[in-house]
Amino acid sequence: MGKVTFAGVKVPQGTFSVIDGNPAEVSIDPVTITQTEGDAGILNYTYTISRIGNPLLNNVNLKGNLTYVVTGSGANPALATDFIGDSFPSGTVSFEKYEETKSLVIAVKNDNVIESDKEFTITLSAGVNTTISLTAGAATGTIVNNDASLAISPTNITQTEDTITWTYTVTKTGVVPFTTTINWAVTGSGTNPATASDFIGNALPNGLLSFSSVETTKQIVISVNADTVIENDKEFTVTLSGVSPTNVAVTTSTATGVISNDDATLAISPTSIVQDEGDSGTTTYTYTVTKTGVVPFTTTVDWAVTGSGGNPATASDFVGSVLPSGSLSFSSVETTKQIVVNVAGDVNYEADQEFTVTLSNVSPGTVTLTTATATGTITEDDAEQFNITLSSSTNNYNLRTAVDNLGYSGVGPAIVNVTVNGGVIIGSANNSTYAFDTGTFPATSTINITNNGRIQGAGGAGGGANGGGGADGGPALRVQYATSVTNNSEIWSGGGGGRAGSGNSTNTKTQSTNNKRELRPIPSSNTQYTITEQPTMDTGPIQDPDVNQL
C-alpha cells in the first residue's frame, strides 16, 4: 500500500474534541397544578419540559424528543370526556438543536355537571437523545368542580312560640345560567313532633323557591301559632327536595326548628324561711310568687297556711289566732306578688314549729304551678323551762325561791303553766301553795318552772315541848331515778314534823327526813323531771343541807 501525502495543504494546529452523543435528562415542572373548572370552554394546564445537557459534552446541541401520556389518577380519576376530543391527551415533544425547554399544554373541558374534584397524571417517556428524570419525570393536575349547589341555614332555630316566625336562608353557590328551583316542606320531628295545629292555617307549611341565574339567596319563613296551652317544647324539620336542574347539588338539605313553650308559670320563693318568733308583737314571713311567661289577662291563685312537720304550728301561733290564707291577683303585666304571714310573738317555751304555705286553684288553668309550696319555721327564742311531772291525790306542794342564785341573767324565779290531769289548781306563782286534786292515784300532773324555781313537799308541825311527837310533813315524792332524773338535777330532803322528845320541853326538836323532797332546776341543763307520788312514803333518809332555810 502506498503512502498518502497532502501536498500544499495546511493542517490546523491545536486540540480537538469529539462530541459525545449521550442523551440529555428531561424533567417536567411544576409537578402539580390545581385549577377550578369553568362552566364552558377550555381550561388549560400548562407545564414546562426541560432538558439538561452535559456541560462538558454540551450534548443539548443535538435534536431530541420524548413522548407523554395523560391518565386519570387519585381518588376521583379524570375521564377521557374531561379533555378536548373526549380522549386522554398524548403526544411527542421535540427539541431542536440547542433548545432546552418546551411547553406542554393539557386542555380540560369546562362543564356544569355536578361532580367531585378530579385528578389526572402526565407521564413522560424517553425518546431520541433524552432520558427521564428520576425525580421529576411525571406531574399531576387537579380539576376543581365549580358547579352550583344549594344549602339551607341555619341548621337549627330554637325560639319561644310567641316569636311567631322561623326564618331560614337557602344559598346558591356556583353559576347556573338559567333558573334553578327547589321544593321545601315542614314535617314534625323529634321526641315531641309539631303538628299542623302548631302552624298558621293549621297546616304543615311547604313551598317552592325559584332562583334566577343571578340570584344567590332565598328565604323560607315558617309561621307558628302562639297559644296558651301548657305543653312540651315541640320540633319540626324543613326539608329541601326536587331541585331543578338536577345537576345542582343540594349540599345541606335539612334544618330543624324547636318551638319552646312560653306559657305562663307561677312559683313561690324562697322555699324555706326560718326566723325567731319574738316575745311580743308580730314576726313577718314574706314569700314572693313570680309569674313567668305571657298571660294576656288576669291570673289568680289562692294560698293557705297549714301546720306541718314534727311540731306543726297551730292557729294560736299566728296573728288573729287563725291560720292565714288569701288570694293573689296578677294583671297581664304584673310578674310578682307577695304573701306576708304574720306570726304572733310570745314568751312560752315550746319546741320549734313549722308551717307550709301552699298555692292552689290557679286561674286560668293553663298556668302551671312549678313551685307550689314553701315552708316556714318558727324558732323558739324564749327562756328554757323545766317540766316536772307529778302523780298525786289531793296534796299540797310549796314552790319557793331558791336561796342561791341559780337563774339565768335577767330571768326571775317564776312558775308557768301548772297543769293537773283532772285536777284543780289553787295558788299563784312564787312561794305559793298548789293543791293538786286529780281524783286518781297515782296520776300525772305537770308543772313548768323557770331555772330559779323549787318545788317541795309541805312541812309538818313541830314536835311537842315535852317530847311529844310532831305531825308528819306532807307526803314525800318518790323519784324514779332510772328514767326520770338526769343532767345535774339536785334532790333535797327534809322539813318534816318534829319527832317525840326524850326529856323535857327544852329538848331539841328533831327533823324527819323522809317526808319532804325538793327539786330545783340547774342552769344550762335542759332537763325533764318526772316524779311520781306513791301510797307509801318510804323513800329513805336523805340529809337536807338546806334544812334550816325551808
Folded structure, characterized:
The protein folds into four domains: 24-144, CalX-beta domain (Immunoglobulin-like), CATH 2.60.40; 149-260, Sandwich (Immunoglobulin-like); 265-379, Immunoglobulin-like (Sandwich), CATH 2.60.40; 383-550. 1% of the residues lie in helices and 45% in strands. The protein has one helix at residues 481-484; strands spanning 24-29, 32-36, 42-52, 64-73, 90-95, 101-109, 118-126, 130-132, 138-144, 149-153, 156-160, 165-173, 180-189, 206-211, 217-223, 234-244, 249-252, 254-260, 265-269, 272-276, 282-292, 299-308, 325-330, 336-344, 353-363, 368-371, 373-379, 386-390, 395-401, 415-420, 433-436, 445-449, 453-457, 478-479, 490-493, 517-520, 528-532. Strands 2-9-7-4-5 form a five-stranded mixed sheet, with no helix packed on it. The N and C termini lie far apart (179 Å).
In short:
The protein is mainly beta and 550 residues long. It folds into 4 domains: 24-144, Immunoglobulin-like (Sandwich); 149-260, Sandwich (Immunoglobulin-like), CATH 2.60.40; 265-379, CalX-beta domain (Immunoglobulin-like, Sandwich), CATH 2.60.40.2030; 383-550. The chain has one helix at 481-484; strands at residues 24-29, 32-36, 42-52, 64-73, 90-95, 101-109, 118-126, 130-132, 138-144, 149-153, 156-160, 165-173, 180-189, 206-211, 217-223, 234-244, 249-252, 254-260, 265-269, 272-276, 282-292, 299-308, 325-330, 336-344, 353-363, 368-371, 373-379, 386-390, 395-401, 415-420, 433-436, 445-449, 453-457, 478-479, 490-493, 517-520, 528-532.
